[in-house]
Amino acid sequence: MDAMLTTPAWILLALAAVFALVALSQGFACRRRLRRRRRAAAAVRGLWALLALVLALVLGGLGGGLIGYARLLQDSEVAQIAVRQVEPQRWSVRVTRPDGWHRSYVLAGDQWQLDARVVRWDLPGALAGLPALYRVERISGRYTDAQLEREAERTVHELGGRAFPDLWTLKRQFPEWLPFVDADYGSAAYLPLIDGARYEVVLAPRGGLVARPADEPTQRLLDEAGW
Hints:
The chain is α+β, with helices and mostly antiparallel strands. Helices cover 42% and strands 32% of the residues. It has six helices and nine strands, in the order H-H-E-E-E-E-H-E-H-E-H-E-E-E-H. It has helices at 2-35, 39-72, 123-127, 146-151, 167-173, 216-224; strands at residues 76-87, 90-96, 102-108, 111-121, 133-142, 156-158, 181-192, 198-203, 209-213. A hairpin with a 2-residue loop joins strand 1 (76-87) and strand 2 (90-96). The longest helix is centred in the first third of the chain and has 34 residues, at 2-35. It is elongated and about 90 Å long.
């Protein structure tokens, strides 16, 4: 789907550039005829320049819009998560971000959960290809049993690392100041803690966080666990 959009998009942008050059050349021709007082010929050249300019703008807008949609179809990687069991219902979890930052945490429970704040742009910004912004907040352990969730040890770790100025808080406190922000919300994803499993967490194009196995061995482990 991405190639189906980006290929015609670049063709449209190339045509827009051609028409922009035509508009420029016709503009210079119009200027030369005006200097020679050939007003009728200058008017014709001016009309051609205007038509070529309009076509360049239209084609450029269509091409840019298609590229924007192509980018909206792509997932954005948020984190890689590797799990190693320490003892029953206790795990060492390594979190790695796309920028290379990584750290290990101890989680208690049966599942891990990653939380993030997400900011998305209004339609013009989205079509221009502006990516959604996120700030990974924390990782925590979860229990399958609700009773254990209430009574057993809870483990929560802040991940920190701001990926953007805190637009999420500003939008909630002063919504009229940021009309270009389409949506701001919290999102979370979780999967089971399994020894040797490796997961990836991505930000879906028009959704929230999505967690999935990072390799075939992890997929087999999930299948064996009934996920």
